[in-house]
TrEMBL record:
<dbReference type="InterPro" id="IPR041664">
    <property type="entry name" value="AAA_16"/>
</dbReference>
<keyword id="KW-0547">Nucleotide-binding</keyword>
<dbReference type="Pfam" id="PF00196">
    <property type="entry name" value="GerE"/>
</dbReference>
<dbReference type="InterPro" id="IPR016032">
    <property type="entry name" value="Sig_transdc_resp-reg_C-effctor"/>
</dbReference>
<dbReference type="InterPro" id="IPR027417">
    <property type="entry name" value="P-loop_NTPase"/>
</dbReference>
<keyword id="KW-0067">ATP-binding</keyword>
<dbReference type="InterPro" id="IPR011990">
    <property type="entry name" value="TPR-like_helical_dom_sf"/>
</dbReference>
<dbReference type="InterPro" id="IPR036388">
    <property type="entry name" value="WH-like_DNA-bd_sf"/>
</dbReference>
<dbReference type="InterPro" id="IPR000792">
    <property type="entry name" value="Tscrpt_reg_LuxR_C"/>
</dbReference>
<dbReference type="Pfam" id="PF13191">
    <property type="entry name" value="AAA_16"/>
</dbReference>
<protein>
    <submittedName>
        <fullName>AAA family ATPase</fullName>
    </submittedName>
</protein>
<feature type="domain" description="HTH luxR-type">
    <location>
        <begin position="900"/>
        <end position="965"/>
    </location>
</feature>
Amino acid sequence: MTGPRPEGPLVGREREVSRLLSALSACDRGEPRALLLRGEAGIGKTRLIRELVDAARSREGEPPPVVALSQCVDLGPIGVPFAPVRRLLQDIHRIVGPEEFAEAVGSTGVLDTLSTLVPELASDGAGSESRQDRYVAESIERVLEQLSRRRRLVLVIEDLHWVDASTLALLRTLSMTLRAEHLLLVMTYRTEDVTTGHRLREAVAEFERSRRIEIVAVGRLDRTEVNSLAMEILGRDPSVGELETLMARSDGVPFFVEELLGIPESELPPTLRDVVLARYERLPPVAQRVAGAVAVGGSEVEHDLLAAVWPASDEELDAGIRQAVATNLLVTTADGYQFRHALFREAVYDVLLPRERMDLHRAYAAELRRRVEHGDDTCAAPEAEHWLAAKEAGAAFDASVIALRHASDRLAPGTAARIGERLLELWPAVPDASARAGTDRLALSARIAHDYRSAHHVRDCLRVVTDALSEAGPDDIARVPLLLTELEAARETERRAEIAGNVDEILRLLEDRHTPEAERWRAAALSWAAVFATGTDKLGAARRAVEAATAVGDPSIRAFALTISARAWSARGDLLRALQDLDEGMPLAAGSSDDSLAAANESVCYRLQVGDLDGAIQVGLGAFARASDAGRERAGAHVLSNTAEAIIATGRLDEGLEAARRSIELTRGDSVQVVLNAIQIQGIGLVWDDRLDECDLLLATEGESASSAALDLQWVGVWNMLLIDLAVAKARREQAAPRLRALTAMMPLVMVLEDESVRDQPGEVDVLLVSGARLLAEIRLAGGDPRPETAAAIAELVTHMPHPDRGAPLMAMVVALLATAEEGDDEVQAWRRAVEVAERGCVPKRALHESRFRLAEALLRAGGDSDEPHRLLTQVTQQAPADGVSLVASWARTLRRRGEAGSPVDLTAREKEVLGLVAQGRTNGEIASELFISPKTVSVHVSSILAKTGAANRTEAASMHSSSGT
């Protein structure tokens, strides 16, 4: 049964190969793909990867391919941060060359950040940026995205069951967002190793739910496929007996089929474990000892490391390696050796005597410690794992302390947090643990929680905080940093409401403490108190926070407090005061930090609302550029989305739409808020440019994101604004009856403005005031009766907003729309005022053109001189399309055509009677009473009149009646 080949051909994998090649073709077309290849050990995942890699490297055409492969290595449950990514970056850098790589990186800041993984990338100015401004994961995302625009990137990372936390977080983001262009990301893992509690388990569940990641499950071979594989290896058909043996012993796993075919039938071992060991047991003793040393060393062992722990001569080591490689038990790598299959390593490790394993683990640990002492901190994590395996808790603890420092220096908070938890586990078994760790147990817990928070592992953060708080006494001051971290993390979860009580507990613990640290904590707690305050209490709480932060002199706490204060002023409607706080706070926040970006984002929003459009664009693009230079484009996406709104508002529609799309690409799968906001901005741009079909498609595609709008009052405002504006645009295309039905159906979206909770924070829903008033006006113009409670609520909210001359220019438009909705005598004057404010350049271009159009409408309804309406409509028709406001231009053209037509209309006698009474200003009820018909019948007649005359509303129809003498 012995076969001539160490590895069989690819048999029975047509479906899997087809899916891999299909993804490769998509990559060629510029459609990014992420694949997760999974299956049990020996099933053939690596064989499929080789098939893909060969196909990718043989591809011709543009853009040229870059194929980089890496694998996670078994360095214990924690691992070295970004270990497999380091190898990918090195391969990519080697293939594309330093110039193209640097061009893709785009800034020395990002290049220096990446040099923390690959030292040869460091620029001459390395180290010029502060640690907090360097973000490894986001920098990696950026360089891959930029390279994918000019290269086809095929990136493979195998054996995710051994992945470190930092690499896993990066891969989750890369595969869930797929921001790149010509990118194929392929990952593999062994299913039987991902058991309950494994760090990959949660990620796999997330991948399975995502439509962006294709799962390729590799199953066992059936009888026909095993027969074909055996025939390929043997060069003949297997006998019936051989096939029966193969099926019985291999269970259809290709690796076992191949191994069984390499063993004489008379020597076939009884179990699968013995099948795996058969190759090892045929080795000479020296080769077996080498294989054992490699098995203890890990999934891949450098030659120099193996030589350092080898107890005999170099000649014996070389001989043993050659024999193990010759029998295909070991294979060579770039720097050392690994087993041809992980099952070989596991089996060899298991047959070693306990003393042999312990001695080898100690030897590896000692050599790795020597390397750490010579400055190679990357060896600290594997050193700790070897000490643990050797049952040396103290040495493992000391190595973990160094590994924690290394993870922090490499900006890998997820890995740092896991190492910290390892220290907590070892703590009881280590004498003088506090002295050896340089911190006490609760302080370490606070650091772990903070690292988990920085890595966006909110649940783990809260778990650590809960455990630590249960250990701390009720009056222990160590509770304070834990409670502050809990405040920061839990506000993103369903626990948001319950953790507001943390503020009171912090202030109680600090009551009699006045050290500088205690004062900083107190100022931070007061800022959080302002976050949770509502209504009229919010502003007072915010001012107290600013005073406390100013007193302690901590720039970051003061920047945070000023941002919260700005939000409080905004909620009250005083945007100019809000901007004063932001202008004071932004210089205090460091570079591209989260605090700096949050303040910049608030500034963009408020400048938009007060009409400083150019200032909003300047602040927004500047902040996004700083974030990009630091490798933090994704963190700056929320600023970019709001800046897109400002760009569209100035009439640069295409540029604004592109910025909105970019912000979605950056945050897809990461921030519901940013994606929702950017979709709304895109939609508004499309609606007012009269591209309603495109907007419908956008909403249909993004239905899942839209479902999140109800989570926040501000989100409700912006999302309902889009839906209302879209409905108004569509309704204007309809005849009277369907128009009124469509508009009335939107009323529930505006009725949120009647809620008691909105009255003290009108700034949260300012955009909905405009769209809500527009809907009421359109209902009146379509012959309906706007809901008076809603109109009153909008009018009341407007009184809490600044005057149009003092920071809320769109309120002049709201007042005019309400005048139209109420058929007020001052309608024309209100629209003149709105036009006057809009022409100062402080409102979106769509508001300027709409105000001019509606003034023309109002003048025509008033029946005055037609020269001014004609001039206004001509102005809108000619200028609005260039500003991305084609919708209003189409309204203006329709109104001009109606005014110029003046043709007779064929009305029934009853319709003429109704129209005459409409022209007298009678309501439907009054007309019904006079003609002895029901109000519903009057409504039907009015709808018919509007349809026949083409009038936009009953007032316009009455005007046409008067001018034609009907």
